[in-house]
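Limitations

Structures in this collection are predictions, not experimental determinations, and the ligand pose is part of the prediction. Treat each record accordingly. The example that follows, with nicotinamide-adenine-dinucleotide as the small molecule, is included so readers can see exactly what is and is not provided: the inputs are given verbatim, and the output is the predicted complex.
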Amino acid sequence: MREAIGHEDALYGFKGGFDKSALNLGLKAGGYWPNNQKHGLINHQSTVFLFDPDTGRVSAAVGGNLLTALRTAAASAVSIKHLAPEGAKVLGMIGAGHQSAFQMKAAARVGQFERVIGWNPHPEMLTRLADTAAELGLPFEAVELPRLGAEADVIISITSAFEPLLMNGQVKGRTHIAAMGTDTKGKQELDPALVARARLFTDEIAQSLSIGEFQHASAAGSISDSDVTAIGQVITGNHEGRGDAEVTIFDGTGVGLQDLAVAGAVVDLARQQGKAIEVEI
Ligand code: NAD
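Predicted complex:
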Protein backbone atom coordinates (compact mmCIF):
# COMPACT_ATOMS: atom_id res chain seq x y z
CA MET A 1 0.00 0.00 0.00
CA ARG A 2 1.43 3.38 -1.02
CA GLU A 3 -0.52 6.60 -1.45
CA ALA A 4 -0.25 10.38 -1.45
CA ILE A 5 -1.18 11.67 2.02
CA GLY A 6 -2.09 15.21 0.92
CA HIS A 7 0.65 16.77 3.07
CA GLU A 8 4.13 17.95 1.93
CA ASP A 9 3.54 16.14 -1.42
CA ALA A 10 4.49 12.97 0.47
CA LEU A 11 3.94 9.40 -0.68
CA TYR A 12 3.60 7.08 2.29
CA GLY A 13 2.96 3.38 2.63
CA PHE A 14 3.66 -0.01 4.14
CA LYS A 15 5.30 -3.16 2.87
CA GLY A 16 4.94 -6.14 5.15
CA GLY A 17 5.02 -9.88 5.32
CA PHE A 18 6.56 -13.02 6.76
CA ASP A 19 9.60 -14.84 5.43
CA LYS A 20 8.98 -18.25 6.93
CA SER A 21 12.37 -19.70 6.01
CA ALA A 22 14.38 -16.94 7.72
CA LEU A 23 11.63 -16.25 10.30
CA ASN A 24 11.57 -12.55 9.49
CA LEU A 25 8.15 -11.08 10.32
CA GLY A 26 7.54 -7.36 10.00
CA LEU A 27 6.86 -4.30 7.93
CA LYS A 28 8.53 -1.25 6.49
CA ALA A 29 6.69 2.05 6.92
CA GLY A 30 7.74 5.18 5.10
CA GLY A 31 8.01 6.64 1.64
CA TYR A 32 9.06 9.74 -0.22
CA TRP A 33 8.99 13.35 1.03
CA PRO A 34 10.19 15.44 -1.95
CA ASN A 35 10.72 18.66 0.06
CA ASN A 36 13.06 17.19 2.67
CA GLN A 37 16.11 19.13 1.51
CA LYS A 38 14.90 22.12 3.54
CA HIS A 39 15.20 19.93 6.66
CA GLY A 40 18.64 18.65 5.66
CA LEU A 41 17.21 15.15 5.14
CA ILE A 42 17.11 12.82 2.13
CA ASN A 43 13.69 12.45 0.48
CA HIS A 44 13.34 8.73 1.15
CA GLN A 45 12.50 8.06 4.80
CA SER A 46 11.55 4.68 6.20
CA THR A 47 11.76 2.45 9.27
CA VAL A 48 11.51 -1.33 9.44
CA PHE A 49 9.75 -2.95 12.41
CA LEU A 50 10.43 -6.62 13.09
CA PHE A 51 8.25 -8.85 15.27
CA ASP A 52 8.98 -12.10 17.09
CA PRO A 53 7.17 -14.68 14.92
CA ASP A 54 6.63 -16.94 17.99
CA THR A 55 4.77 -14.32 20.05
CA GLY A 56 4.00 -11.28 17.88
CA ARG A 57 6.01 -9.06 20.23
CA VAL A 58 7.95 -6.26 18.53
CA SER A 59 11.63 -7.24 18.39
CA ALA A 60 13.45 -4.46 16.52
CA ALA A 61 13.13 -1.04 14.94
CA VAL A 62 15.67 -0.58 12.16
CA GLY A 63 16.42 2.60 10.18
CA GLY A 64 15.34 1.85 6.61
CA ASN A 65 16.99 4.60 4.54
CA LEU A 66 20.38 3.01 3.85
CA LEU A 67 18.89 -0.47 3.72
CA THR A 68 16.35 0.62 1.09
CA ALA A 69 19.06 2.12 -1.10
CA LEU A 70 21.15 -1.06 -0.81
CA ARG A 71 18.34 -3.53 -1.43
CA THR A 72 16.93 -1.52 -4.35
CA ALA A 73 20.36 -1.34 -5.97
CA ALA A 74 20.86 -5.05 -5.33
CA ALA A 75 17.53 -5.87 -7.03
CA SER A 76 18.51 -3.82 -10.06
CA ALA A 77 21.93 -5.50 -10.18
CA VAL A 78 20.36 -8.97 -10.01
CA SER A 79 18.29 -8.08 -13.07
CA ILE A 80 21.41 -6.82 -14.87
CA LYS A 81 23.29 -9.99 -13.98
CA HIS A 82 20.56 -12.18 -15.49
CA LEU A 83 19.19 -10.04 -18.33
CA ALA A 84 21.90 -7.71 -19.69
CA PRO A 85 22.92 -8.42 -23.28
CA GLU A 86 26.18 -10.33 -23.57
CA GLY A 87 29.23 -8.06 -23.74
CA ALA A 88 27.41 -5.04 -22.27
CA LYS A 89 29.98 -2.21 -22.00
CA VAL A 90 28.01 1.03 -21.65
CA LEU A 91 25.87 1.83 -18.61
CA GLY A 92 23.26 4.55 -19.04
CA MET A 93 21.91 6.30 -15.94
CA ILE A 94 18.61 8.22 -15.95
CA GLY A 95 18.34 9.92 -12.57
CA ALA A 96 20.90 11.51 -10.31
CA GLY A 97 19.21 11.51 -6.92
CA HIS A 98 20.16 9.74 -3.69
CA GLN A 99 19.50 6.23 -5.04
CA SER A 100 21.45 6.70 -8.26
CA ALA A 101 24.91 6.36 -6.70
CA PHE A 102 23.94 3.07 -5.02
CA GLN A 103 22.46 1.86 -8.31
CA MET A 104 25.60 2.62 -10.31
CA LYS A 105 27.88 0.98 -7.74
CA ALA A 106 25.79 -2.21 -7.60
CA ALA A 107 25.60 -2.39 -11.42
CA ALA A 108 29.38 -2.07 -11.63
CA ARG A 109 29.73 -5.12 -9.37
CA VAL A 110 27.83 -7.37 -11.78
CA GLY A 111 28.70 -5.87 -15.19
CA GLN A 112 31.98 -5.28 -17.03
CA PHE A 113 31.16 -1.66 -17.89
CA GLU A 114 33.79 0.47 -19.62
CA ARG A 115 31.97 3.79 -19.41
CA VAL A 116 28.90 5.47 -17.94
CA ILE A 117 26.64 7.99 -19.66
CA GLY A 118 23.90 9.84 -17.83
CA TRP A 119 20.95 12.21 -18.07
CA ASN A 120 18.84 13.84 -15.40
CA PRO A 121 15.84 16.17 -15.59
CA HIS A 122 17.75 18.46 -13.23
CA PRO A 123 21.23 18.75 -14.86
CA GLU A 124 22.75 20.42 -11.78
CA MET A 125 22.47 17.04 -10.01
CA LEU A 126 24.65 15.22 -12.57
CA THR A 127 27.76 15.78 -10.46
CA ARG A 128 26.59 12.86 -8.30
CA LEU A 129 26.85 10.52 -11.30
CA ALA A 130 30.22 11.97 -12.35
CA ASP A 131 31.60 11.59 -8.80
CA THR A 132 30.30 8.03 -8.44
CA ALA A 133 31.73 6.98 -11.81
CA ALA A 134 35.08 8.53 -10.82
CA GLU A 135 35.00 6.53 -7.56
CA LEU A 136 34.52 3.40 -9.68
CA GLY A 137 37.31 4.41 -12.05
CA LEU A 138 34.91 4.71 -15.00
CA PRO A 139 34.73 7.60 -17.49
CA PHE A 140 31.45 9.54 -17.31
CA GLU A 141 29.73 11.74 -19.88
CA ALA A 142 26.46 13.67 -19.57
CA VAL A 143 24.36 13.11 -22.70
CA GLU A 144 20.86 13.78 -24.01
CA LEU A 145 18.32 10.94 -23.95
CA PRO A 146 18.51 10.03 -27.69
CA ARG A 147 22.25 9.36 -27.32
CA LEU A 148 21.75 7.55 -24.03
CA GLY A 149 19.12 5.26 -25.56
CA ALA A 150 21.22 4.59 -28.65
CA GLU A 151 24.57 3.92 -26.90
CA ALA A 152 23.75 2.27 -23.58
CA ASP A 153 23.62 -1.53 -23.37
CA VAL A 154 22.14 -1.34 -19.87
CA ILE A 155 19.96 1.55 -18.67
CA ILE A 156 18.94 2.20 -15.08
CA SER A 157 16.09 4.67 -14.55
CA ILE A 158 15.71 5.91 -10.98
CA THR A 159 13.76 9.19 -10.90
CA SER A 160 10.52 10.31 -9.31
CA ALA A 161 8.98 11.19 -12.69
CA PHE A 162 5.24 11.21 -13.35
CA GLU A 163 5.56 11.18 -17.13
CA PRO A 164 7.61 9.16 -19.61
CA LEU A 165 11.22 10.25 -19.97
CA LEU A 166 12.75 7.53 -22.20
CA MET A 167 10.84 7.10 -25.46
CA ASN A 168 10.47 3.95 -27.54
CA GLY A 169 12.27 5.34 -30.61
CA GLN A 170 15.28 6.39 -28.51
CA VAL A 171 16.23 2.84 -27.49
CA LYS A 172 18.34 1.13 -30.14
CA GLY A 173 19.79 -2.37 -30.28
CA ARG A 174 20.02 -5.01 -27.58
CA THR A 175 19.36 -3.25 -24.31
CA HIS A 176 18.38 -4.12 -20.76
CA ILE A 177 16.48 -1.49 -18.78
CA ALA A 178 16.16 -1.64 -15.00
CA ALA A 179 13.17 0.65 -14.34
CA MET A 180 13.50 1.32 -10.63
CA GLY A 181 11.85 4.70 -9.96
CA THR A 182 8.15 3.90 -10.38
CA ASP A 183 6.68 2.48 -7.20
CA THR A 184 3.38 4.37 -6.87
CA LYS A 185 0.22 4.83 -8.91
CA GLY A 186 0.70 7.64 -11.43
CA LYS A 187 4.52 7.56 -11.54
CA GLN A 188 6.14 6.78 -14.89
CA GLU A 189 9.60 6.80 -16.49
CA LEU A 190 9.18 4.84 -19.74
CA ASP A 191 7.12 5.26 -22.90
CA PRO A 192 4.35 2.59 -22.76
CA ALA A 193 5.21 1.73 -26.41
CA LEU A 194 8.72 0.78 -25.21
CA VAL A 195 7.17 -1.44 -22.54
CA ALA A 196 4.85 -3.01 -25.13
CA ARG A 197 7.75 -4.02 -27.42
CA ALA A 198 10.07 -5.34 -24.68
CA ARG A 199 10.30 -8.67 -22.87
CA LEU A 200 9.08 -7.90 -19.36
CA PHE A 201 10.29 -8.99 -15.93
CA THR A 202 9.53 -7.80 -12.43
CA ASP A 203 9.91 -8.61 -8.74
CA GLU A 204 6.14 -8.94 -8.11
CA ILE A 205 3.74 -9.17 -11.06
CA ALA A 206 0.56 -7.82 -9.41
CA GLN A 207 2.51 -4.85 -8.03
CA SER A 208 4.20 -4.05 -11.38
CA LEU A 209 0.79 -3.84 -13.07
CA SER A 210 -0.81 -1.71 -10.34
CA ILE A 211 1.90 0.60 -8.92
CA GLY A 212 4.99 -0.20 -11.01
CA GLU A 213 6.24 0.93 -14.41
CA PHE A 214 4.00 -1.56 -16.21
CA GLN A 215 0.79 0.05 -14.82
CA HIS A 216 0.47 2.36 -17.86
CA ALA A 217 0.84 -0.23 -20.65
CA SER A 218 -1.46 -2.47 -18.61
CA ALA A 219 -4.11 0.26 -18.26
CA ALA A 220 -3.87 0.92 -22.02
CA GLY A 221 -4.47 -2.78 -22.67
CA SER A 222 -1.19 -3.23 -24.58
CA ILE A 223 0.16 -5.80 -22.07
CA SER A 224 -1.45 -8.28 -19.69
CA ASP A 225 -0.17 -10.19 -16.67
CA SER A 226 0.83 -13.13 -18.88
CA ASP A 227 3.38 -10.86 -20.60
CA VAL A 228 5.28 -10.30 -17.34
CA THR A 229 7.65 -12.86 -15.80
CA ALA A 230 8.78 -12.87 -12.17
CA ILE A 231 12.57 -12.44 -12.10
CA GLY A 232 12.73 -15.40 -9.70
CA GLN A 233 11.72 -17.66 -12.59
CA VAL A 234 14.86 -16.57 -14.44
CA ILE A 235 17.11 -16.91 -11.40
CA THR A 236 15.89 -20.44 -10.71
CA GLY A 237 16.33 -21.42 -14.38
CA ASN A 238 12.61 -21.91 -15.10
CA HIS A 239 12.57 -19.12 -17.71
CA GLU A 240 15.15 -18.47 -20.40
CA GLY A 241 15.35 -14.75 -19.55
CA ARG A 242 16.54 -12.53 -22.40
CA GLY A 243 16.49 -15.21 -25.11
CA ASP A 244 16.32 -13.49 -28.49
CA ALA A 245 14.59 -10.35 -27.16
CA GLU A 246 16.06 -7.04 -28.28
CA VAL A 247 14.89 -5.07 -25.24
CA THR A 248 14.30 -6.45 -21.75
CA ILE A 249 12.81 -4.42 -18.91
CA PHE A 250 12.95 -5.24 -15.21
CA ASP A 251 10.31 -3.31 -13.29
CA GLY A 252 11.71 -3.08 -9.76
CA THR A 253 8.70 -2.12 -7.67
CA GLY A 254 10.19 -2.97 -4.27
CA VAL A 255 8.79 -5.76 -2.10
CA GLY A 256 8.56 -6.20 1.67
CA LEU A 257 10.59 -9.43 1.56
CA GLN A 258 13.67 -7.42 0.51
CA ASP A 259 13.23 -5.05 3.45
CA LEU A 260 12.65 -7.81 6.00
CA ALA A 261 15.61 -9.84 4.72
CA VAL A 262 18.09 -6.97 4.93
CA ALA A 263 16.69 -5.71 8.27
CA GLY A 264 16.87 -9.22 9.77
CA ALA A 265 20.47 -9.63 8.62
CA VAL A 266 21.43 -6.21 9.97
CA VAL A 267 19.85 -6.87 13.39
CA ASP A 268 21.84 -10.13 13.63
CA LEU A 269 25.04 -8.26 12.72
CA ALA A 270 24.32 -5.42 15.14
CA ARG A 271 23.76 -7.92 17.97
CA GLN A 272 26.97 -9.81 17.12
CA GLN A 273 28.96 -6.56 17.04
CA GLY A 274 27.36 -5.19 20.23
CA LYS A 275 25.85 -2.28 18.32
CA ALA A 276 22.18 -3.08 18.95
CA ILE A 277 20.53 -0.91 21.61
CA GLU A 278 18.31 -3.05 23.85
CA VAL A 279 15.23 -1.30 25.30
CA GLU A 280 12.35 -2.38 27.54
CA ILE A 281 8.89 -1.94 26.04
P1 NAD B 1 15.80 11.92 -4.90
O1 NAD B 1 14.74 12.83 -4.43
O2 NAD B 1 17.10 11.90 -4.22
O3 NAD B 1 16.06 12.19 -6.47
C1 NAD B 1 14.95 12.34 -7.33
C2 NAD B 1 15.32 12.04 -8.77
O4 NAD B 1 14.16 12.22 -9.59
C3 NAD B 1 16.35 13.01 -9.33
O5 NAD B 1 17.00 12.37 -10.42
C4 NAD B 1 15.47 14.16 -9.83
O6 NAD B 1 16.11 14.94 -10.83
C5 NAD B 1 14.30 13.39 -10.40
N1 NAD B 1 13.04 14.13 -10.36
C6 NAD B 1 12.52 14.84 -9.33
N2 NAD B 1 11.32 15.35 -9.66
C7 NAD B 1 11.07 14.93 -10.94
C8 NAD B 1 9.99 15.12 -11.82
N3 NAD B 1 8.91 15.82 -11.50
N4 NAD B 1 10.07 14.54 -13.06
C9 NAD B 1 11.16 13.80 -13.41
N5 NAD B 1 12.19 13.57 -12.59
C10 NAD B 1 12.15 14.15 -11.36
O7 NAD B 1 15.12 10.47 -4.92
P2 NAD B 1 15.79 9.04 -4.78
O8 NAD B 1 15.85 8.66 -3.35
O9 NAD B 1 17.01 8.98 -5.61
O10 NAD B 1 14.63 8.13 -5.41
C11 NAD B 1 14.38 8.16 -6.80
C12 NAD B 1 13.11 7.38 -7.08
O11 NAD B 1 13.30 6.00 -6.75
C13 NAD B 1 11.90 7.85 -6.28
O12 NAD B 1 10.79 7.91 -7.15
C14 NAD B 1 11.69 6.74 -5.27
O13 NAD B 1 10.35 6.62 -4.86
C15 NAD B 1 12.14 5.54 -6.07
N6 NAD B 1 12.53 4.38 -5.27
C16 NAD B 1 12.12 3.16 -5.70
C17 NAD B 1 12.45 2.03 -4.98
C18 NAD B 1 12.03 0.68 -5.46
O14 NAD B 1 12.12 -0.30 -4.72
N7 NAD B 1 11.61 0.56 -6.69
C19 NAD B 1 13.20 2.15 -3.80
C20 NAD B 1 13.65 3.41 -3.41
C21 NAD B 1 13.30 4.52 -4.15
